[in-house]
Design brief:
By secondary structure, the chain is α+β, with helices and mostly antiparallel strands. The chain has three domains: 1-68 and 210-238 and 336-432, no CATH class; 78-205, Rossmann fold; 240-334, 2-Layer Sandwich (Dna Ligase, domain 1). Helix content is 32%, strand content 23%. It has helices spanning 13-28, 30-43, 78-83, 85-95, 113-128, 212-229, 255-275, 303-307, 311-316, 405-431; strands at 2-3, 10-11, 49-56, 61-67, 101-106, 132-137, 146-149, 155-160, 162-164, 167-169, 177-181, 198-200, 241-244, 284-288, 297-300, 329-333, 339-341, 346-355, 358-367, 382-385. The strands form four sheets. Strands 1, 2, 3, 4, 17, 18, 19 and 20 form an eight-stranded mixed sheet that branches. Strands 7-8-6-5-11-12 form a six-stranded mixed sheet, covered by helices on one side. A four-stranded antiparallel sheet has the order 13-16-14-15, sandwiched between helices.
């Protein structure tokens, strides 16, 4: 559900004091930051688009997930979309100069009406950026077009995908670029292999092959490079994590690996909390190392919770989208969110959207029934668009209250660090 107002969530007083230190540090080093990013993007091309889930604990702000097949364009501020059309065109042309026709391949077999509103919004911003757009069904058995009626009154027409030699098309529409909005959790279909057209993001970055732990390893390396230019403790921007494979929660196989790595992480986080005099209890997030939609995620506040998982918890952790089994997990340092929205103080976290190397906009994910140490990507969540009325790639030096839009500059920097990590992932995947 998209909330209609556009207010800024609040940080509690203690978190705000710590956050101002980070915020001012970034504002004071903005010229160095932008120069550093400029040099990085010359070395490594950015993915065409992506979204980054952030958590702001005041004393620390870090990404907790990065999606290369983002859904949720319908939750963005339309003013931001109109102002960012040049970013969109730039990201497209980076991959395929002279692109005019784009074929979007969305998720298959989803009844989520909000997802289709997302696809409609995505197509509208591409149209406004000057591209022709059609939609294809990624279903080898499809022989007829499928109209999808939207609650907004619009209709999407999904057409059967046809392969001729090494090119994909629908009917008489031969695209210059294939834009995937399908995360390929169930694998890469043969129809997408060995094409002469640009397919972005590359199918090898789908969740059947990509791991969150690989992204966060790249992210830690990116932040390590970043803090050589902008001196600070990299822990303030990066979650600690460990990885376990060969997991079967239903058979309780591999759980000892999770427990042993959790013990190491708890000790490391406790040491950092003591160093910074943080008066909060460390916690962990254990989640599937691949996949989206907030599936197979749990909060762990102490080791005993892992030792005594009940059947309901093990069932919830055993599968992800499409019924795919969970075999690998990432054990991640939990990042509190001390941002709240509205009179009911609903917990909130920012989600930032990017096209290529530029921030497009974002929204707050808000949940009235979840705590500040829990996963908010869950049924009952609502969305509040971020008021990016100016570019968040640059600090708003005219704003007297630094708790306003300058907050979004910091969000934008951290999101771009995550996008750069994804760019390095992509580069390594293409080179293999």
């Amino acid at each position: 559900m998209l909330l209609k107002s556009c207010s800024l969530p609040q940080l509690n007083a203690q978190a705000m004091e710590s956050f101002h230190f980070l915020e001012n540090h970034f504002i004071n080093h903005a010229a160095l930051i932008e120069d550093w990013f400029s040099k990085q993007w010359k070395q490594t091309a950015a993915p065409v688009y992506g979204s980054v889930d952030l958590r702001n604990a005041g004393f620390k702000i870090a990404p907790i997930d990065m999606n290369l097949f983002p859904a949720g364009f319908n939750n963005l501020n339309l003013k931001d979309l109109r102002a960012s059309l040049t970013y969109i065109a730039e990201a497209i042309y980076e991959w395929m100069p002279q692109t005019k026709r784009i074929l979007i391949i969305p998720e298959s077999h989803t009844r989520n009406r909000f997802y289709w509103e997302n696809i409609h919004t995505l197509s509208q911003i591409l149209l406004k950026a000057g591209f022709e757009v059609r939609f294809a069904l990624l279903d080898e058995n499809a022989t007829a077009s499928l109209p999808i009626e939207l609650s907004s009154g619009a209709t999407l027409l999904l057409e059967p995908l046809v392969r001729k030699d090494n090119q994909l098309m629908v009917a008489d529409f031969l695209p210059d670029m294939i834009l995937l909005n399908n995360d390929l959790s169930e694998g890469i279909p043969a129809i997408l292999e060995n094409l002469t057209q640009a397919v972005v993001p590359p199918p090898t970055l789908g969740w059947s092959q990509r791991l969150k732990s690989s992204h966060f390893q790249q992210y830690i390396e990116v932040v390590s490079d970043f803090v050589q230019t902008i001196p600070m403790d990299s822990w303030l921007l990066a979650p600690l994590f460990r990885h376990c494979g060969e997991i079967d929660f239903m058979q309780q196989e591999g759980v000892e690996c999770v427990i042993s790595h959790a013990e190491i992480l708890f000790a490391a986080i406790e040491a950092k909390y003591a160093e910074y005099h943080i008066p909060h209890q460390p916690f962990l997030i254990v989640k599937a190392d691949a996949g989206t939609y907030g599936m197979a995620v749990m909060t762990v506040r102490n080791i005993e919770e892992l030792r005594s998982l009940n059947r309901k918890q093990r069932t919830r952790m055993s599968t992800i989208k499409g019924g795919q089994p969970v075999r690998d997990v990432i054990i991640q340092e939990g990042i509190y969110t001390f941002e709240t929205f509205g009179n009911e103080n609903a917990v909130a976290e920012p989600v930032v959207y990017l096209w290529g190397k530029n921030v497009l906009g974002g929204f707050y994910r808000v949940h009235k029934e979840r705590g500040n140490d829990e996963n908010l990507n869950a049924p009952g969540m609502q969305f509040e668009s971020l008021p990016f009325t100016v570019s968040c790639d640059e600090p708003n030096t005219l704003l007297e209250d630094s708790s306003g839009l300058n907050r979004f500059y910091l969000y934008g920097v951290v999101a771009r660090l995550s996008m750069l990590a994804a760019a390095r992932e992509m580069r390594n995947t293409i080179q293999q």
